[in-house]
Design goal:
Layout lengths: L1 H13 L10 H11 L1 H15 L9 H20 L7 H23 L1 H4 L1 H6 L5 H18 L3 H7 L10 H26 L2 H16 L17 H4 L5 H12 L7 H29 L4
Helix pairs in contact: 2-14, 3-8, 4-5, 5-8, 5-10, 5-11, 5-13, 8-10, 10-13, 10-14
Length: 287
């Protein structure tokens, strides 16, 4: 009987770090999220509380942050550069909120394992829960941040249209891309912390290469040849979709570029899930 207990205990301990079939990653993550939903919900609440803990303005920072950043860009591009489009402040604030959301879930997912290393050592939980809680909590904050868009729409006399459906679709693509890349590199970050620093630099540089302070429609005729290179950035379509949803204009992007971006974002999530579940058993030893 003692040998049986020892064998059972050893087997149970060993199975805490199983190696999964590579292709089963997305299914296993979905199954874990369903089975551990109460834990996921608690971590989402924790992430939101920690963000505004000991803050005087609390949740209002979700509104103040994009307003302040957009004000800086407004001064740079309207006052100094002399752009005259009346909708430009609206475009900038939507771009700022969307890019901030992407950068937070990408960088947050990459450090999800290292930041929760002590908890992972103490109790078993599916490790993907930490990346998903970061993504969902930031999604909730981002949705509330978009409330600052309403006064601009009223001022510009922009009424909601059926294009509004583009907003959640764009957010799904942004979430898939940021979370997918985060899952893909979070394991590698436990081996080499340079990864998280590298991606912070990438997201800062990517702000200028993505349509945050510009739009595809603003590209001059003489520069139309650049469109093929710009569209290699999978964030161009989601940001443009969210803008189109709020201002009610047509997306104005070729369907091939849309298909490319959708496939890229969803494939990133699927591949990231596969890599994460396959490697987690190995990388948690380095936490």
């Amino acid at each position: 009987m003692g040998q049986s207990i020892k064998k059972s205990g050893f087997s149970e301990l060993r199975n805490n770090h199983p190696k999964y079939n590579f292709l089963s990653g997305p299914y296993l993550i979905w199954k874990n999220l369903v089975n551990y939903f109460p834990a996921l919900s608690n971590f989402i609440q924790r992430d939101i509380r920690l963000k505004y803990r000991n803050s005087l303005f609390g949740f209002f920072w979700s509104l103040l942050e994009p307003l302040i950043l957009s004000g800086v860009y407004y001064i740079l591009f309207i006052v100094i550069a002399g752009r005259t489009e009346p909708e430009y402040p609206l475009w900038v604030i939507i771009g700022v909120i969307t890019w901030t959301f992407f950068s937070k879930i990408l960088n947050g997912s990459i450090v999800a394992l290292t930041r929760n290393g002590e908890l992972i050592k103490q109790v078993y939980l599916p490790r993907e829960i930490f990346a998903f809680s970061i993504t969902i909590s930031n999604l909730i904050i981002t949705i509330f941040s978009f409330l600052v868009v309403i006064p601009f729409m009223i001022y510009l006399e922009i009424a909601p249209t059926s294009q509004l459906v583009m907003v959640p679709l764009g957010l799904i693509l942004v979430s898939s891309l940021g979370l997918g890349l985060g899952l893909m590199f979070s394991g590698l970050n436990t081996l080499n912390r340079d990864i998280e620093h590298l991606f912070r630099v990438i997201t800062r540089a990517g702000l200028f290469l993505s349509p945050v302070m510009w739009t595809v429609k603003m590209l001059p005729e003489s520069r139309q040849s650049m469109i093929e290179y710009l569209m290699l950035n999978p964030m161009v379509v989601p940001i443009s979709m969210i803008r189109s949803g709020f201002d009610g204009t047509e997306l104005g992007i070729d369907s091939l570029y849309i298909i490319y971006s959708v496939v890229f974002c969803l494939a990133s999530l699927i591949l990231g899930s596969m890599i994460f579940k396959r490697s987690e058993a190995t990388v948690v030893k380095y936490l």
